[in-house]
């Protein structure tokens, strides 16, 4: 993909992904923005500094204003910086659950003024941005964004390609991650996947990510059904087919711990009378 701008700060860069869809990178974080004749839609501001950098970059490169800011979900490491855009007469969009959480927690960012429960279709000139909720997966109110006609899919945190899922899955629902990713793959095709972290990819990359989640869940579940505790599972589960993913060695034991915790806290494996084990890790 062509690099169209490199910031003097090494943490920031802007890349043209496809047609009118651009990726903005700030350190390990990615967001997208979409440039149309009717204005610009930006997504996750990431931080005050990142938002200020992007705001200046967009003003210098394009002759249309920013009209919308869309949050991918509620987590503050993606929504922080919204206040940078708040004074520019733009519309802030989020799923209703993300908006509720930002208000309840008094998050120091711009509050959404347009929310939705299932799907929102936003038309900007010849471009359509389809925002859809797929149920619980990561945080609250996490959505996918599909940009047409470029046919680019943007998902933050609950689908990651080229890298392991984050550490011990803090704030994640493994059941929801699997369900939501299956729903994405069962839905309309997409030409390019952009994530909030790690790599861009295609359908095959998302399919492989789903297979990893399913293999991870099955390995932990089956081990717990056999009465194995966390330390044993972390020692025995290797999933070598995915050893090429970044952070494999560092995060696989943590991924195992995240699923183990879910099966205790959500599925109550420690109350199962059919399992002869004491889960005390």
Give the neighbour order of strands across the main sheet: 1-2-3-4-5-6-7-8
Radius of gyration: 20 Å
Low-pLDDT segments, ≥5 res: 1-8
SSE-based structural type: alpha/beta
* Approximate shape: elongated
Helix content: 25-40%
CATH topology: Metallo-beta-lactamase, Chain A
Count of alpha and pi helical runs: 7
Straight-line N-to-C gap: 46 Å
Protein architecture, described:
This protein has 281 residues and is of the alpha/beta class. It has one domain (3-202): Ribonuclease Z/Hydroxyacylglutathione hydrolase-like (Metallo-beta-lactamase, Chain A, 4-Layer Sandwich), CATH 3.60.15.10. The protein contains 7 helices and 13 strands. It has an 8-stranded mixed sheet. It has a 5-stranded mixed sheet with strand order 9-10-11-12-13, with no helix packed on it. Helix 6 (230-236) runs antiparallel to helix 7. The radius of gyration is 20 Å and the shape is elongated. It starts with a strand and ends in a 16-residue tail after the last helix. 41% of the residues are buried. The model is unreliable at 1-8 (pLDDT under 50). Residues 28-197 form the Metallo-beta-lactamase domain. It holds the Pfam family Lactamase_B. InterPro entries: Metallo-B-lactamas (IPR001279), RibonucZ/Hydroxyglut_hydro (IPR036866).
SSE topology:
Elements: E1 3-6, E2 12-18, E3 21-26, E4 29-36, E5 39-42, H1 48-61, E6 66-70, H2 76-79, E7 91-95, H3 96-104, E8 114-116, E9 119-124, E10 127-133, E11 143-148, E12 152-155, H4 174-186, E13 192-195, H5 203-225, H6 230-236, H7 248-265
Parallel strand pairs: 5-6, 6-7, 7-8, 12-13
Antiparallel strand pairs: 1-2, 2-3, 3-4, 4-5, 9-10, 10-11, 11-12
Helix pairs in contact: 4-5, 5-7, 6-7
